[in-house]
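JOB MANIFEST
job_type = single_chain_structure
chain_count = 1
residues = 155
[input]
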Amino acid sequence: METQRQGLESDETAALLPLIGTAQGMKDDAGDDDNTSRQAGASQINQGMTDNLAKWQNLVKTFQQQTPPVGCEDLGNAYYKLLQAYTDLCSQIQVALANGDYAKVLSLQSAQTIVDQDAADADSALATVCTRFNAKKNFVISTDSGSSGTSLLGG
């Protein structure tokens, strides 16, 4: 599940960068009379973000279909909270980009810190489960897509 989440996060970050560029271009062109290019840019943003958000929602749905084993309930709850926070952040970004509100996208950096904390909480719950069951903890739950150091908003 974590491998899928990190893959989606990496894809989301890669997809978001050109969309932010498009939104910035739309903001810069706001005074222009070329409403058609702004509409095309908004359509591109909406489609890209809708596609990515649907992938996140599917991951959440898949996770919800799993029942955590006995002793792993706290981990399950913490991980679900992370998935929800990330999906909510993606949704907020989609709305802001669709509205051409580049400043709002940048202001969502504070929401990224909440997602980062949720990831740290889920990783801590994973460590607790590993300790409890004397299992090796061979991966980290984090929002840096493994070791790439990139968050959704590039923080």
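[summary]
Residues 35-64 form the longest helix (30 residues).
The CA atoms of residues 34 and 80 lie 43 Å apart.
exit_status = 0
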